[in-house]
Amino acid sequence: MKFARLWVLIRREALATLRDPFTVSILIAVPLVALFLFSSILSTSVHDLPMGVLDFDRSPTSRRLVAQLEATRSFLPIALATRQQLDQALSDGRLSLALVLPDGLDRGVGKGRPPPGDAARRPQVQVIYDGAETVLAGNAEAFLGATLAATALQDAGVAAAIGQASAGGATSMQRPPVRVLVHALFNPTLDGQPFMIAGTFGFVLSFATTLIIAVSVVNERFSGTFEQLQVTPATTLEIVLGKVLPLSAVFSLDVVLMMLAAGFVWGVWPAGSVIFFLLVSTFYQVISLSLGLLVSATSATAQEAVAKTVLLATPLIQLSGFALPIQNMAWPFRWIAELIPATHYIRVSRGIYLRGEGPLDLIGELSVILLMGLVLGGLALRAVGRRE
Amino acid sequence: MLSRGGHRASDAELIGGRKQAANPMLSRGDEMPAIELRDLRKNYGRRAALRGLTLDVEGAQILGIVGPDGAGKTTLLRALAGLLEVEAERASVLGFDLRQDTASLRACLGYVPQTFGLYRELSVAENLRVVGRLHGLSDAEIERRGKALLERNGLLPFVDRSTGALSGGMKQKLAIASALLPDPQLLILDEPTAGVDVVARDEIWQILEERKAETLIVVSTSYLNEAAACDRLIYLDSGRVVASGTPTALCAATPFELYRAWGALPRTIAQAARKLPFVVAAGATGQFARVEVAVDRSPGAAAVCAALEALPGAGVVLAARAPLDMESTLRALAVAGQPPARQGNVA
């Protein structure tokens, strides 16, 4: 090896790298963005979760309990009047969890009666959460359980001390004076598989679709076939649809294959309508394919399109709630997450798969997907059809 | 739209050059020019590719676009094909405005880009079928026209072959057949014979010659013989038309005289000739040296020949004046297109 030659090669590579704005921006921006993003979204802590409160006790103790939970800044209490309201809000996704405080809580906790060891007669605080949001539910359940126990223990301090003296041991001191009963809607066993499978549809349709259309169109532009089409009477819309529809059909078939695989291999079938899920998934491709077209319109080579798609899709998927609960993210990222199409598709997917929801239940998310599809589709058409 | 009467150019016009004559293409009759460009401009970011180009073309003919690399030839052709957003005082091709939607124009033209743009994974027949159907031709019409075109350019035996497996020349002939399939009024070709062997190049030009009676053919080329075969030439430099006219008229307007000097060592002759004060350029070509002399500095044919024959150590056996060829013409145009400081440096 000759160092002079090696030095020439090193200098050439350095110059070529530094003169390519795209590479330089990747080298500088990616580590910083990744650090910033992941430190903000990869958190298991719970904060500002909308929490429904159904307070049957309406006592100083129950109010203090809710106030103390609010003070932790982990939960945002929302007062509810009936159990029906609670179920509806959980089903709509407006609440992540709910707390049911029973009548007699004040008597049971405040007075230290009946004795903590009498499990059957201790007041039962119910925690109900959306089991479809498995990761979030797990985190919230553990946190809320610990907070409730600590708060109740604090309230029952005097009575517990009496209990300790009479029972003569530490065991009764550590036992909370209330029973926390945890109940999950939709996915009672908190099985993570349906949660991840329903989210994987979003991952595949967001990432693979965008990547394939972007690379395909860039290759066509690079090989000259796209320009050849542009000098025929075919309109931009026709050219784009001619490109997109066959791919869309293939991806729709992919969705069916994934559903069959999930059903036969893991036993996870949609709780809701299969046809509805297929229709939403097919329309969602409009968004991913549009993003792919936008990437292709700004890329000179297939490699650049691949790099852009990966760089674009990875953080977007991380922010979409595919693997990490959006409610756990810092507030700017929760807002950003709402702007990401995959966030809404994954919610719909989980809604249909885990909660068996229909079009009316998901009308809000469906409206957002429709709007995003129209906007991105229009932008993609404009970008692809624009003459140089 | 296109008349069959051919071009009306009778003289050459050096724009910004040494000779100014009436632009022959502006002498139009009642007919609208097939191409009418006024102050056509195209910028890629800050870089100006076309700087106020003005051009009128009437009638079916072969219009050659020549000029140095980076002159704007491809940009002009892509603009004429409606592929670019352009600015202009007027930009009309076949009566369609290039500044508006060019979908209607595209139905009337055939375009052969510099790089092969058909689908490599499809067969010859399948590619023709795609193009024909996009132009609204019936399958029977595609079959009839396609067969005739493939027969003409010798591709009929390869009709089922994958396009990716064709040779470079075959690909170009297929690209031209594909562009001619919808029977366009305007055929635009960007260096169609670049990288093609001599035989295929001749075949391609025969096809263009046969077609020029009914189609306006606009072709860019860097080959001198192809430039000479055009009915009219446009010489571009730095995004401007430096000159336009028939090859004959452009040659006649070129302010050079061409001489040939024979001897055993043409390269030595050329080197010695460059030292003569009236010689603009000299180079070895086969058995003789080509010597270009500026008209305004020429002492006369007899004196030039005598000076060449008397070159010390060059061994010139015979020197004689020759008719000016396309090489000298284009060199003169290149000099005319350069800034004054660089003019005269062509060797």
Task: Using brief descriptors, characterize the structure shown.
heterodimer; A: 388 residues; alpha/beta; abc type-2 transporter like fold; 2 domains; 5-stranded mixed beta sheet; 5 strands; B: 347 residues; Rossmann fold; Alpha-Beta Plaits; 7-stranded mixed beta sheet; 11 helices; 15 strands; 31% helix; globular; disordered N terminus; disordered C terminus
Question: TL;DR?
Answer:
The complex is a heterodimer of chains A (388) and B (347). Chain A has helices at residues 3-18, 21-41, 60-71, 83-92, 105-110, 134-155, 157-167, 171-174, 192-223, 225-230, 236-266, 274-297, 302-319, 331-339, 341-355, 363-385; strands spanning 49-55, 75-80, 97-101, 124-130, 179-185.
Q: Can you tell me the CATH topology of the largest domain in chain B?
A: Rossmann fold
| Biggest β-sheet strands, sense, barrel of chain B | 7 strands, mixed
- The fraction of residues assigned to DSSP E strands of chain B is 25-35%
> Helix count of chain B, per DSSP?
11
The low-confidence parts of chain B are 1-12, 14-30, 339-347
CA-based shape of chain B: globular
- Number of DSSP helical runs of chain A: 16
How confident is the prediction overall: mean pLDDT of chain B? 84
Q: What is the alpha-carbon Rg of chain B in Å? A: 22 Å
Query: What is the subunit arrangement here?
Result: heterodimer
Helix and strand element order of chain A: HHEHEHEHEHHHEHHHHHHHH
The chain pair forming the largest interface, with residue counts per chain, is: A-B, 15 and 26 residues
Radius of gyration of chain A from CA coordinates: 27 Å
CATH class of the largest domain in chain B: Alpha Beta
- In total, how many domains does the architecture of chain A comprise? 2
